[in-house]
Fold this sequence. Notes:
The protein is an alpha+beta fold. Helix content is 40%, strand content 25%. The strands form 2 sheets. A 6-stranded mixed beta sheet has the order 1-2-3-4-5-6, with helices on both faces. β4 and β5 (68-75) form a beta hairpin. Mean pLDDT is 77; it is low at 7-12.
Amino acid sequence: MPRFGFGKKQKSQSFATNITDKKDLEEIRNISHILNPNEKVFVVARQSRLKPGGSTFTPNIIFGTDRRIIIKDPRLLGLRQNVVDIPYDMISSVRVNKGVFSSNIIFKAPGLISSGRRGKLDKIMEGFGDTSGLADEEGIITAIPKNKAEDLLEVIRNGMDRDREVYHHQGQPQSQLQQQSSISIADELMKLASLKENGIISADEFQQMKQDLIKKI
């Protein structure tokens, strides 16, 4: 996994990505201080300066990482900026609304309101396109070039799938895991007992193997 560092601040401004575009790398460097260790950036997308919903002077920049979406809004010609991040486990659905020249990404994130990110996102999106038709749990990223919108959509969906898979394994009831483990151990003990009865292993070997199985619980 390629990592990039810059000057004396290399430790605090290093980041992981396969992106090679110099402008994109510069944008990643600018937000590297908020990236988590080993967080990988997959895509950098800029709002169009000319397309509907874009910004002529300070277009938003969207980063898709392996953990979240990061939206940067450089206001006042870059002198001030707002940043909001949306982890994939907050997003329940995502879709692309394709226009003639650019695309909008609309996502549903029930956790936005409780997390306090809703206000930040509304402030960032203020003045960029018509958001009146969105529900309280929805957010929109407007005026993204079509190819970048497709890349960002894939990154978001992959991130959502990874989080669901982790939740599925971690959220499995402990009693169910213990039950599965007990069944597996019982099967192995029955096999060992059969081997002992058929004279394939001795009584001492049976006891040793039995203890080894119990230690695995």
